[in-house]
Specification:
Distance between the termini: 69 Å
Number of helices: 9
Helix content: 25-40%
Low-confidence stretches: none
Mean pLDDT: 81
Order of helices and strands: HHEHEEHHHEEEHHEHEEE
Shape: elongated
Radius of gyration: 36 Å
């Protein structure tokens, strides 16, 4: 609670103001910061939600980099430059009038998203796929029918990994739907609707450019409650545990050959050739060697259990690399 001034203190302040010793502006305190808010551009996503979306797409860029490197057989590097929320009109205005736009359908969100690929990057990909060195400098004009089929194939397969990036949040399926070259023909949202853009700086060989992924709000809205750090970390831990359990179950079901070797004997070739039915070959006495695969892992003693030949394990054979 603020201090209450006495009448004497009030009179002293008024006297100082009248005499010019004190300016009224010096007594004015700034109570709050004023922030301009544009209601036409609503900020629908918190910083925490944008960070979660960034982490999701960092995973996707790693998967996309590995996939394109294998397909193009050249150096590929993809990094996130920017993750931001803008209006759909701002996104359309930021991309070239002639570009490559891959439209994808996202289930079960009942929405669509688009991947804009800079022509330099798109033509570099096509040059590599068609056996060239990846130099798009001589390319102009729109895609041919064959090139359109190639772009569809490469990116429909690339976005099969997109669901892996989202698996800790939501089970989604992404299907390639169409390809456009003119952004004016693409209407995924109204001009003032908020979209999330993920700008990917892409390097293919000596060519650099960008690819931009646009997620309309209607597509992301159903999963917004799950885009918190707490839910993200808990889902990550559940996924890691389930993965460990799956691996353990698969390992437990693997069959390996186990052989109990009674002993060994060495014979000259002349005796081996003269062996007859009823002859006895002496073997080295000692512990039975129990082999797993081709390696001796245990030593044991022969016996019978429930009417069957059996081996009682005496001790384990330690080999290099075993934990002691």
């Amino acid at each position: 609670m603020a201090d209450v001034l006495s009448q004497q203190e009030i009179d002293a302040l008024l006297s100082a103001i009248h005499s010019g010793e004190l300016q009224a502006s010096e007594m004015t305190e700034k109570k709050e910061n004023v922030k301009v808010y544009d209601f036409k551009r609503a900020m629908r996503y918190s910083k925490e939600q944008l960070r979660s979306i960034t982490r999701i797409h960092e995973n996707f860029t790693r998967l996309l980099t590995s996939y394109l490197s294998a397909q193009l057989r050249t150096f590929v590097q993809i990094e996130i430059d920017l993750v931001d929320q803008v209006t759909y009109h701002e996104f359309i205005a930021s991309i070239p009038s002639k570009t490559i736009l891959n439209v994808f359908e996202v289930k079960p969100m009942d929405g669509k998203m688009v991947m804009e690929i800079n022509p330099q990057v798109a033509y570099a990909i096509l040059e590599r796929l068609l056996g060239g060195q990846g130099d798009p400098a001589t390319r102009t004009g729109s895609l041919t029918e064959i090139e359109t089929v190639l772009m569809k194939k490469i990116f429909s397969q690339a976005f099969s990994y997109y669901k892996n990036a989202w698996e800790n949040i939501e089970n989604i399926n992404v299907n390639w739907e169409a390809i456009e070259s003119n952004s004016q023909f693409l209407q995924l949202a109204s001009p003032n609707d908020t979209v999330i853009i993920i700008v990917l700086h892409t390097t293919i060989g000596e060519i650099s450019g960008r690819m931009t992924l646009c997620l309309p709000h209607l597509t992301v809205e159903p999963v917004l409650p799950k885009l918190s750090s707490h839910l993200w970390l808990s889902s990550m831990s559940r996924t890691n545990v389930s993965q460990e359990e799956k691996i353990k179950k698969k390992i437990d079901a693997v069959n390996v050959p186990v052989i109990a070797e009674l002993g060994r004997a060495t014979l000259p070739v002349s005796e081996l050739l003269n062996l007859q039915v009823g002859d006895v070959i002496g073997i080295d006495a000692g512990k039975l060697q129990v082999k797993v695969g081709q390696f001796t892992r245990f030593l044991g003693n022969p016996g019978i259990q429930k009417g069957h030949y059996a081996v009682q394990i005496d001790h384990k054979v330690q080999t290099e690399g075993d934990e002691r």
